[in-house]
Amino acid sequence: MIKLLTVVGARPQFIKAAAISRMIRERYSDSIREIIVHTGQHYDHQMSDVFFKELEIPEPHHNLGIGSGNHGRQTGEMLMKLEAVFEKEQPDAVVVYGDTNSTVAAALAASKINLPVIHIEAGLRSFNKQMPEEINRIFTDHVSTLLFSPTRAGMDNLKNEGLLSGKQPPYSIDQPGIFHTGDIMYDNTLFFADKARESSGILAKLELKNKKFVLATIHRPVNTDSDDRLTGIMEALIEIPAAFGTDIVLPVHPRTAKKFESLHDSDLYRQLTPENGIHLIPAVSYLDMIMLEYSASLIITDSGGVQKEAWFMEKPVVILRTETEWTEIVAQGNGVLADANTKKIVEATGNYLKNQPVDFPKVYGNGNAAGEILEIVLNAAWK
Ligand code: UD1
Ligand code: UDP
Fold first, then answer.
1. Of 3.40.50.2000, 1.20.120.530, 1.40.20.10, 3.30.830.10, which CATH number belongs to 2-183+365-379?
2. Atom 39, ligand 1: which residue's CA is nearest?
3. pTM of the predicted structure, to 2 decimals
4. How far is the CA of 256 from the centre of ligand 1 (A)?
5. How many angstroms is it from 254 CA to the middle of ligand 1?
6. 209-244 residue pLDDT tens
7. N or C: which end of the chain has fewer CB within 10 A?
8. Of all atoms in ligand 1, which is nearest to the CA of residue 44?
9. What is the pLDDT of residues 88-106, one digit of tens each?
10. Class of domain 202-354
């Protein structure tokens, strides 16, 4: 029996962790024991609890309650508290997902006390170090013992940074095992699609059943913390319903909600109304989100996970950034980097609404990434 300690903290990590926890329960309960630690980075009901309940993720064994803060304080507090939990639990390895401050804190705390780190969603790069996530990813990959990349591009990025895979177990921080597997988020999309169709009431609630709509999300600091960029995006969102006769649904991340509060009295904000075809709603649960993605004609987003889910649902995506880690989407022509440029966002939306892409090759695996990953983890010859 090996003991894995999983560290999660932010919304996309709960979703990713659900795929691995479910697989441990279904197939590996005799050989893997999982301890879950929640850093508390995300804490609102709609950003945390709702995912544990809906995705049936086991209750965390430890919740560090760290909450929001600037990078140094948030990451520093995580480091201190995680080290204490690791010392107490003495796991065989620490599992981290993606690229948030919770990821990098766990990777640093574990590697400094010689605990092997397993990084799921390794190798992704934007080549833009202004993004806090880029620093988190590079750092985490370079102290990991097992790295699982969901894309070919991710494997190439790791190789280009001099990270070469050991040929066989045992692996170590100096001779890591690097593997290309499917994407665990695809596992989840497939697993929860029917459940979402059966139980989500979001379309009825928004009166959008059988109605054409575009789904949008915005939460990257580069967009929310710049008045110019946020204004550029909002102007596009206001123009789209009028230009193309389609509604827009915008579930709002708390970071963006706070920014909107300061814009309450602005003319632009006041135009974001259902009468103008724009449904501003609080952040939704995963099943509601899957349902919205499945039913939308197109997705506009700056989220990493939502870009991929657009692909899983075979929907075009207008990306509110200048670059993406998920390069396959743009290379295939199923996504456009429209930045925060009103004209580009509206044009790309219009083009895709007229000509829906049809070819979405299976580049993210076959829905069994969690199984592939756990098989490798089990055979990695732990101490
Ligand atoms: C974090 C991740 C980002 C990821 C995103 C997923 C980092 C550096 N960033 O960004 O990579 O894409 O999560 O959603 O780790 N807030 C609340 N309630 C909550 C959580 C946050 O009100 O439950 C507000 C707070 O004002 C907080 C702000 O949102 O300051 C930002 O939260 P934070 O976790 O620091 O970063 P995210 O933007 O959520
Ligand atoms: N998501 C959700 N509710 C929302 C917005 C997003 O459940 O209101 C899900 C989405 O389906 C995806 C994940 O959250 O699985 C993406 O997380 P997010 O956009 O917060 O972060 P990123 O992927 O950019 O790190």
1. 3.40.50.2000
2. 255
3. 0.98
4. 10
5. 8
6. 989 999 999 999 999 999 999 999 999 999 999 999
7. C
8. 23
9. 999 999 999 999 999 999 9
10. alpha beta
